[in-house]
Amino acid sequence: MNEAQTEITIPHLFRCPISLDLLEDPVTLTTGQTYDRSSIEKWISAGNFTCPVTMQKLHDLSFVPNHTLRHLINQWLQLGSQFHHPCNNNISATIDYLATIKHTLESHDSSIETKLKALEKISVLSDEYCSFRKSCFQQLSFLALLLELVFGLSDSQLSENYYMEFMELALSCIVKLLPIVNLEPLNIIKDESKLKKFIFLFEKGTSSMKTSLCLVIDYSTTATQTEQVCEILGNSQKLVHEIVQVVVNKNCDNLSEAAIKALSALCSLESNKESLVKGGAIDGIITYISRCDTTRDKNLAPLAMTTMMKLLVLESGKEALVNHVNGIETLVKMVFKVCNQECSESAVGILSIVCSDFGSAREVAIGAGVLSQLLFLLQSQCGTKTKTKARMLLKLLRSKWTEESMH
């Protein structure tokens, strides 16, 4: 071990349980315990066929390299020689501190109050970005642990007085970890019992919990290994219905925005679209964009309308829009939006789709003043793409109007 390595104490996590020295070539047994390759090879060669830490019998003597831990150790060694590095305020203590927090959360002996304090510490630490700390969260499997705590425990395992508070804080910590760790642990939600707990929390949880769950849905679409999670969530009619109810809730802007992001994320998979339409996504989006003049709601109106357009690839999606009592009128009002050209372009595009297929949609749109709205739009400073779509819609309406008046 060189001088730079001896400047700081080796964290417990980085020591081989057999030699107690720094792990140079960490390998993991089938029991989940990690040792230095040379040490465990000597142990097995001596005729020991048990795991040194757990004493479990080793039916499989194979082991796999622990690349994540090796990377973490290398990073620790590099930072150890940089005495003014912002993350190097006793790196060993940081690692052991996080390991202690994890143990507190895992232990059945820890009280709910103690676990709440542990979650508060995670929340603070995850806010302070540090690439080394990020690696620690990953190596110590904090995301998997928190997901298991939220979706794995039964209601009776937590004191009723602290239940919602614990779940709310745990979900908040999960959301903070999602951008900085591998998302593979999200696959826990594919389990039927975990899915039921997810939906239960969405139904019964606080606004903060629902916001966090919406963000979990949003992140499930950002990695290929969690695509199945997105598909399972999107095909739950009960969950989609709950998300739509949140979207139409005008009294909670932050939550409505999170729900719009969740619907958009679910809509990224073709297999989810029919479920979204059946769950009332079109109706929910129409209600949402009808409030777009409010300061906050207009920020995600373009995303909401883009999501609606994706759903119009289905005949059921078009019918849901056309049959909505205020659907077409709401879109006509969005055609000329000087403050938001994205909304204008989307509104024109959506109207072009339904007006091409439904005479009733054309009739309602014309009655709602779409022709004058399009003319105003063409005289505005909107982009070339929007103007091109507006001209095409005008041409469509005129040709259809002429064709229908001749019959």
TrEMBL record:
The keyword Transferase applies. It is an enzyme of class 2 (transferase). It holds the Pfam family U-box. InterPro entries: ARM-like, ARM-type_fold, ARM_PUB, PUB22/23/24-like, RING-Ubox_PUB, Ubox_domain, Znf_RING/FYVE/PHD. Its EC number is 2.3.2.27. Functions as an E3 ubiquitin ligase. One of its GO terms (molecular function) is ubiquitin protein ligase activity. GO terms for biological process: protein ubiquitination. The keyword Ion transport does not apply. Residues 9-83 form the U-box domain. It comes from the Eukaryota. Gene3D superfamilies: Leucine-rich Repeat Variant, Zinc/RING finger domain, C3HC4 (zinc finger). Keywords: Transferase, Ubl conjugation pathway. Pathway: Protein modification; protein ubiquitination. CDD domains: RING-Ubox_PUB. This is U-box domain-containing protein. It catalyses: S-ubiquitinyl-[E2 ubiquitin-conjugating enzyme]-L-cysteine + [acceptor protein]-L-lysine = [E2 ubiquitin-conjugating enzyme]-L-cysteine + N(6)-ubiquitinyl-[acceptor protein]-L-lysine.
